[in-house]
Amino acid sequence: MSNYIYEHRDKVRDYECDVQGIVNNANYQHYLEHARHEFLLSHGVSFMDLHERGTDAVVARITIQFKTPLRSRDEYVVRIRVKKEGIKWIFYQDIFRASDDKVCVRAQVDTVCLINGRLGDSDELNQIFLPLISE
């Protein structure tokens, strides 16, 4: 996949690994979520500020394909691209091991917005994301 619009770099911490010495599968969701929040911040929008203004972006579905495990102290890069379908925003997020650019995870994260508790379309997120779509 190409057409990435954002990337976030980070490093695996020891406590994120399981007894096998690899990152526990659940931690990849943390990596993906943190990258989405950092992506928002790079556009001047805080996830918490959105909530305080009545907009809650929530995950409706997530699909993760595990390809190559990360290990303690591995540096990694989460790359993101987005697509809009109706009121749903779809984040395609791939995690690469930084040392060799090997794919570790491919994920599709479908999100929707609750505006003051009701399913809806966020004008604020549309203003941020729509100009970034290249498809």
Features:
135 residues; alpha+beta; Thiol Ester Dehydrase, Chain A; 6-stranded antiparallel β-sheet; 3 helices; 6 strands; elongated
Give a written overview of the molecule:
With about 140 residues, this protein is an alpha+beta fold. The protein has one domain: Hotdog Thioesterase (Thiol Ester Dehydrase, Chain A), CATH 3.10.129.10. Helices cover about 25% and strands about 40% of the residues. It has helices at about 25-40, 45-50, 125-130, and strands at about 5-10, 55-65, 75-85, 90-95, 100-115, 120.
Any chance you could write out the topology, listing elements then pairs?
Layout: E1 6-11, H1 25-42, H2 47-52, E2 55-66, E3 75-85, E4 88-97, E5 102-115, E6 118-120, H3 123-129
Antiparallel strand pairs: 1-3, 2-5, 3-4, 4-5, 5-6
Main β-sheet, in a few words?
A: 6 strands, antiparallel
Overall form: elongated
Helix content estimate: 10-25%
Strand and helix order:
EHHEEEEEH
Overall number of structural domains: 1
Text of the CATH class: Alpha Beta
The count of β-strands is 6
In CATH terms, the superfamily is: Hotdog Thioesterase
How do you describe this structure in short?
With 135 residues, the protein is an alpha+beta fold. It has helices at 25-42, 47-52, 123-129, and strands at 6-11, 55-66, 75-85, 88-97, 102-115, 118-120. It has 3 helices and 6 strands; from the N terminus they run E-H-H-E-E-E-E-E-H.
